[in-house]
């Protein structure tokens, strides 16, 4: 929830409230408050964090001139809560970058075995599938708890979601990689970048 207070036509402050998992509070704050302080300084905000509940209140400072900054901070905090490293989450400050989250329980229910299975399909052995997904979709992906979160440009988010959903629905990894390589070739053609050829996926990934 985001609130903006006005007085005589002037913006007084912006506030936003959200919750993150308690085991991610320490990551948000960082060693000796380093991560929290960095976010506050860069975006001219104050973060009030309740370590017991995971509740986070974002209060923009009066000198914060960018009215959209509160949404960026909210997304960064949310991304950290969904497993992203704080520095990786800061890419959300880039124009046209956004965070999207898929709740796996919406597709496989609450079964621990089913959740472990679909998470394993997305992550892959030693994280290789996730790494290839990130490379081919030009996104950053975090698999945490019962969610898959991904960060990227508006253009990249749609194809990332489609690829992740294919894996959730049981598509072979090879089918997904071929789909993504075809998409990459199409995008490179449109950008006039066909001179650059992406190498084919490694054998162990193609066979999955």
CATH top-level class of the largest domain: Alpha Beta
Q: Count the DSSP helices.
A: 10
Q: What share of the residues does DSSP label as strand, in percent?
A: 15-25%
Level of helix content? 40-55%
Strands in their spatial order, largest beta sheet: 1-2-4-3
Q: How much is the average pLDDT? A: 89
Describe the structure.
The chain has 208 residues and is α+β, with helices and mostly antiparallel strands. The protein folds into 2 domains: 2-93, K Homology domain, type 1 (Ribosomal Protein S8, Chain: A, domain 1), CATH 3.30.1370; 98-206, Ribosomal Protein S8, Chain: A, domain 1 (2-Layer Sandwich), CATH 3.30.1370. It has helices spanning 25-29, 34-43, 69-81, 86-89, 105-108, 112-123, 128-137, 154-168, 173-191, 203-206; strands at residues 2-7, 10-19, 45-49, 55-60, 97-103, 140-144, 147-153. A hairpin with a 2-residue loop joins strand 1 and strand 2.
Secondary structure blueprint with pairings:
Blueprint: E1 2-7, E2 10-19, H1 25-29, H2 34-43, E3 45-49, E4 55-60, H3 69-81, H4 86-89, E5 97-103, H5 105-108, H6 112-123, H7 128-137, E6 140-144, E7 147-153, H8 154-168, H9 173-191, H10 203-206
Helix pairs in contact: 7-9, 8-9
Name its key features.
Ribosomal Protein S8, Chain: A, domain 1; three-stranded antiparallel beta sheet; globular; 10 helices; alpha+beta; 7 strands; single chain; four-stranded antiparallel beta sheet; 208 residues; 22% strand
